[in-house]
Amino acid sequence: MTxxxxxxxxxxxxxxxxxxxxxxxxxxxxxxLILAARRIDRLNAxxxxxxxxxxxxxxxxxxxxxxxxxxxxxxxKLPAKWKSIDILLxxxxxxxxxxxxxxxxxxxxxxxxxxxxxxxxxxxRAVIPFMVKQNSGHIINIGSIAGHxxxxxxxxxxxxxxxxxxxxxxxxxxxFDTDIRVTTIDPGMAETEFSTVRFRGNVNxxxxxxxxxxxxxxxxxxxxxxxxxxxxxxxxxAEMILLPNKQASSIVVHRN
Length: 256
Ligand code: NDP
Ligand code: 8X3
Known about the structure:
This protein is of the alpha/beta class and about 260 residues long.
């Protein structure tokens, strides 16, 4: 098993959902955490909780992953003792809208592409050179079942997650001669703020997504992340698709 004690873990999108649950799970294992997102108040509250619950050392980073100059600057300016990141959890992401392509909002498309694809690339481009220099590290991307299948009106969101799948495979090939590991964890329906963000605060519409099914909890996804991160160094969990029971594919869902 790989111990996570004192490992430095950078989590993007740590202010909510899967990122927040992963922060707790890594902290419980004794990791030191760089918590990144745009909502700094939430990150500060999380850092306090982690300190209280696990005596964790954390660094809070206000970061919008869509702004390349800010990303590279933030990573470059990390204090020396935080620079050697052991695990990068590329989790920040979102969906906006659920529309037929020819009726979709270009602003929504830009936001999804800028966050889920370009944001993940910017953070990876900034962090991986340090990993290559130290010849160790683990990149864990949060993809999606939507990176394996397309569902009606999911067009651009699915495209961004297919891109994450391609980028993950590319990363693994480009790093194959190093000791760096690359993983993608690809969940199906997980109840987080994801659907509230997708439907711009329409809570009823968001709740309806999970009606009659027991979705994944963000803790379930965090569990899978920890599983991948703690395998022995000779083992790479390349890809893990995680579905709630009674979801057989993006659109085949049995609801009570
Ligand atoms: P949440 O909405 O609960 O969390 C999303 C996180 O991403 C927030 O912490 C948010 O932080 C962060 N984020 C969004 N945009 C940016 C940005 N520009 N810069 C920095 N951080 C950003 O949703 P989930 O936890 O569900 O989503 C996490 C990941 O899981 C996403 O990549 C999503 O696509 C993926 N996923 C989710 C599934 C689900 O059903 N929930 C299933 C499969 C995959 P802030 O707003 O503070 O910046
Ligand atoms: C999130 C899961 O099915 O809503 O990636 O696209 S889904």
